Amino acid sequence: MILHQFARMALATGLVLSLSACGGGGGGLFGKGTLTAEQKAERDEAAEAHRDGTSKAGAKTSLLDLFKKSDDPNTTVEVNKYIWQASLEVLNFLPIESVDPFTGVIVTGYGRPPGGGRAYRATIYVQDPALDARSLKVALQGQGGASVAPETVRAVEDAILTRARQLRVRDSKL
Fold this sequence. Notes:
2 domains, 4 strands, alpha+beta, Alpha-D-Glucose-1,6-Bisphosphate, Chain A, domain 4, four-stranded antiparallel beta sheet
């Protein structure tokens, strides 16, 4: 019986201490006890904005604003379609593991080029809508994590960009 009462008292004391630590105004068990004038002004400004139903930026806020779609549904993805298509065509011997047109990333698995003996995997990043070398980043990795010569990476990038230009010329003749 005494042990039961002691447990209840310990629980009540713990709750009181926890609540006192959560006290507002910067005080409480672990706080400094006082707020600076600047902190008080910020607190008062936030409280006033909350009472008025406005945010700090001045826009009206309500619970229903959480459910309104605020993003523009007509947002376009800024990935060059010719570089994207050329990447898939030039590296068609590599199995595709993941494709994300919204971020412009293509990740492939290991595969051997036609007539080649060494297996490669690639990660292609199309980062700009311009048909430009700066829009394309290619990372190659050899089987077993072996590094690939920069000349090989450059040759793959050049092949992709050449094919992208061919695709654009073909489309302009339509």
